[in-house]
Specification:
Strand content: under 5%
Largest sheet: none
Distance between the termini: 38 Å
Oligomer: single chain
Structural class: mainly alpha
Shape: elongated
């Protein structure tokens, strides 16, 4: 990838925040990876699963309702995700301003600046996920007849991206609270 549009550094910085700060080498926590990527993946697989003919599941309670799951209201979801992404861009600018405030204060602890940097990495990643989600939703909306639900595979991908974005926003919220408590 060219350096002008590569997002690898954003991804690496975000993964670098999923560490166990209590340990000396600060290894990436497998549990965090499983939560942020595993839970959305399991949901996506469950959405795709009924596409295959598992007749033994048909008799299970609730299976038929789940087998009929499709993402509906695509235009509304697209609007919501794109607005969230724009708001996250605004938050990113706010984080830069907070770092400048931290750097202006001589008495500021290095820990506060480190937490601010971690927040910046997580918000940048959330913006990246929001951009990918918005782009994918644009493609799905453009190729799906109005007022119809998405197909099974697009529904699984949308489910993965939105759940992953929500989990990332929870982490951003927690980190923002920690940063703002140091102001």
């Amino acid at each position: 990838m060219t350096a002008k549009w590569s997002v690898v550094a954003i991804f690496k910085d975000h993964i670098g925040t999923l560490v166990d700060a209590r340990k000396k080498k600060r290894p990436v926590r497998i549990r965090d990876l499983l939560v942020f990527y595993g839970i959305p993946l399991v949901v996506a697989i469950l959405v795709i699963l009924p596409e295959f003919n598992f007749s033994w599941l048909a008799s299970k309670p609730g299976y038929q309702r789940f087998a009929d799951f499709r993402v509906r209201g695509l235009e509304g979801i697209l609007s919501g995700v794109s607005i969230y992404t724009a708001l996250l861009f605004g938050l990113l600018i706010q984080i830069f301003q907070i770092k400048a405030r931290f750097l202006d204060r001589v008495d500021q602890r290095a820990g506060a600046i480190k937490r601010n940097d971690e927040l910046e990495h997580n918000v940048s990643y959330a913006v990246l996920v929001g951009i990918f989600t918005t782009g994918y939703l644009v493609l799905v909306v453009a190729t799906t007849p109005k007022d119809t639900s998405a197909g099974r595979i697009p529904s699984a991908i949308i489910s993965f991206l939105i759940i992953h974005l929500i989990l990332t926003l929870f982490m951003v919220l927690k980190r923002a609270r920690a940063v703002y408590s140091n102001l």
